[in-house]
Amino acid sequence: MITKRKKNTRQRGSKTHGWGAKKKHRGAGNRGGRGKAGTGKRADQKKQTILKKYGKSYFGKFGFKKPNKKDTKTINLGYLEKNFDKLLKNKLIKQEKDTFLINLKDLKINKLLGSGKITKKFKIIAERFSKNTKEKIEKLGGEISKE
Q1: Which of 21, 86, 92, 137 is a plausible cystine mate for 142, CB 3.0–4.6 Å?
Q2: Cβ(72)–Cβ(108) under 8 Å?
Q3: Whole-angstrom Cα distance, residue 85 to residue 20?
Q4: Beta partners for 96?
Q5: Residue 37 half-sphere exposure toward CB, CA atoms < 13 A
Q6: Whole-structure pTM over 0.85, yes or no?
Q7: Residue 2: HSE in the Cβ half-sphere, 13 Å Cα cutoff
């Protein structure tokens, strides 16, 4: 393949780069403006042709929309163990024989994560939980379920 020099490098030193007088080929004015310029008051005929060619989706703003993330509030298993007495006193944990029942909806928590150590047998009702959490709870003979 032959390598060809760019045209503009050959025209270095030339004031006009092959466009005649200095004032010609200056800004966007030589092409009727930028973007949708000229589609206004006196150029309504241009707007009609644009609508025919591209449809109504040509005008207006279009772009990316951020997905609405669900507000997740999380806690770890370690939190339940650390604040066990306080939660039991406030009746957010109920005791059934040797098992402690916790409904995370009462705590306004969406997700339970598995960080931290637990020593008690829990029966937990949660909207969401991690695999690690399930393994830790079932290891001690407890259970975890979705709402």
Answers
A1: 137
A2: no
A3: 88
A4: 99
A5: 8
A6: no
A7: 3
Six-digit token pair at 143?
């259970």
CA 110 – CA 104 distance, rounded (Å): 7
Cβ pair 72, 111 in contact under 8 A: yes
Burial of 111 (0-12, 13-18, 19+ CB in 10 A): middle
Rounded to whole angstroms, the Cα distance separating 120 from 80 reads 10
Structure tokens given for 118: 């637990």
Class for the domain spanning 74-146? alpha beta
Q: Where are the domains of the chain?
A: 27-64, 74-146
Per-residue pLDDT of 2-40, as tens digits, reads: 899 999 899 999 988 888 988 888 888 888 888 777 766
Q: Which value, to the nearest 10 degrees, does the dihedral of the CA atoms of residues 122, 117, 110, 134 take? A: -60
